[in-house]
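Replying to the earlier thread about multi-chain prediction with a worked example.

Input:
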Amino acid sequence: MEGIKGAIKDALDFSDFPKSERIGIIIFYIYLLIFPWVVSSSFARAVMIQFLLFALYGMGWNTIGGYGGQVALGKAQYVGISAYTVAMMMILFNIPFWVSMPIGVFLAVLWSFMIGYPLFRLKGHYFAIATIAVSLVLQDIFRNWEFVGGERGLSLPFKGTPNFLYMQFKSDVYYYYFMLIFFTLGLFYMNWFRKSRLGYQLRAVKANEDVAASLGINVRWAKIKAYAIASAFVAVGGAFYAVYHMYIDTSSVMHLELSILIALMAMLGGAASLWGPIIGAAILVPLDRYLGSWIGGAKGLLGLDLIIYSIIIMLVAALEPRGIWGIVEKVRAKRG
Amino acid sequence: MKILQVNNLVKRFEGVVANNNITFSIEENEIVGLIGPNGAGKTTLFNCIAGYHKPDKGKIFFNGKDITGWPPYQTNVEGIARTFQVIESGGDMSVKEEIMVGGFCRTSNRYLAMKEAVEIIEFMKLQDVQDMKLTELPVAQQKRVGLARALATKPQLFMLDEVAAGLTPSEIEEMKELIVNIQKKWNLTIFIIEHVMQLVMGISARVIVLDGGVKIAEGTPDEVAHNEEVIKAYLGERYAKVRKG
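Result:
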C-alpha cells in the first residue's frame, strides 16, 4: 500500500519545476480543458485531437527512446496491432472498445517482448535499423493478409446511435475529452516514471551500459521493460485511432512515417524530459496538418512537409540535441 | 572466512593469455592490493571476477558460492561492487542522481534510495557538488563519485581499479585515508588495483603481484617490495642482478 501511495504522490507532484513553469503548465492545461468551447471549427478540433494523440505516442516513445536512449523507429507496428485488434474484434464479434482496447494493448505488449528480446542484443544504429526492418515486415504482412482487410483496410461498422461502449459519438467533442483523459493519465504516469527506479536505471543505461551493469542493473531487461511500456502507450493511442477514424489501413496505422514522426516529436521537444514530447507534438502536428492542407496538396509542392521535417532534424541535431526543452533548461540555468 | 576464492583462472584473448592459472583468496575485511606492470592482466582479472569477461578456465567463488561466468549485474547484486579506471560520464544525471542509481540496486523505493545517497554524499563530502554533472567535476571529485555510486549498492567486496591515477600527491593522501575510512565504516573487504605505491603499499595488508598474466608474488607489502621476481618485473633483470651484488 505504501508503495502505491508513494507512486500516486510522485505522479501528482510537479514541484521540481520552477513556479513560473508550473503556472505556464496550468494555464496550458486549462486551455486544453476549455478548448472545444472556445474553438468550434471541426478542423481545429481534429488537429487538437491529433495533437493529444501524438503527445501520448511521444510520451511512450520517450521511455525507451528518451530516458533509455535507444532510438526505436518501429513504434507504428504497436499502434497498428492494437488498432487492428480493436477493429477486427468489433467487426467479427461486436466486442466493445473498452474490452478490445485492453486486449489490443496486451497483444502489442506481448509482441514487444517477442521483438524486444532478440532486438536488444543489438546496440545503437543497428538496433534502430532492426526496429525499422521488423516494422516494415509486419506492415507488409498485414497489407497482404486478406483476413484483416489487406490493401483495402478495415471500416468499423457504424452503430447508428451514439454509443459509449463502442466509442461512437456524433460530436468530436466527446473524442476530444476521451483523448484528453488518456493524455492526462499518460502525463501522470510519465511524471511517476521519470522518478521511478526504472526511470533512473534507464538514464544510467543511456549514459554507460558497463557502469550501469556495475550498479546492479540488468541492462537488457531494463530496455525490454521500457520498450514494452512504450508499446503499451502507443497501443492505447492506436486503439483510440481505430474508433475515432472508424477506418484503418496499414498506411495510416503501421507506416514507417508514423514511427519516425513519433520519434521526431519527442526529439524536437526534448527527449528524456517530461514536457518534450508534448512540446514536439504541439509544434509538429499543427505544422503537419496546416501545411498538408495549404501547401502539401498543391502541385509540385508535394513532399514539402518532409523537407521541413528534415530541416528540423538537422537543426535539432546541430543546435541543441536535447531539443526545445534543452533550450528552456539552459535559460533556466543561466538565470540562476 | 574467505570472501573470495579464485582457482586456476585462465583468460585468453585471441592467443594472448591475459590471466594464466591464477589462484588466490581474500579474507573477509581485508584490504588486498593487486599490482603489476602495465599489461600484467590486473584489470582482466577484475573483469573476470565482476563478470565483464567469462574466464576460459578456472573457478571463482564468492562467499563459497560459485559465481564463475555470472553477468556483471548479478555479481553486483550478490555483493561485489567495482569502480572503473576511467570514470565514465553520467550523461544528463547529477551526482546525487548517479549515487541514487546505485541505491536503487537494493530498493525500488525512491525515498530510501535518496536517503542512502544523502548519507553517502555526506560521508564522501560531496555536498557542494551533488547537483552538478560528473563531467563538470575535477578528476579527484569524479573518483569520489565513482566510489560513492558503487558503495550505494551496499557491497561486501569492493574492488577499486586505479582510484589514485591522475591525482596529486596530496589528493592521493586524502584518497588513502578515505579508503581506510570506507573499509572501517561499512566493514568491507577491499581489493585494489593500483600503480601508486604510496597508496597501495600504505593500506594493504597483503599484496598480490601479477606479471605477464601470471601471479609472481604474494605477501605483505614489505615482503613483496623485497621480492626478487617483483623487482625484476618492475625494473628489469639487470637491476635485480646488480642489486643482488
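Chain B has a mean pLDDT of 91.

Feel free to reuse this layout for your own posts.
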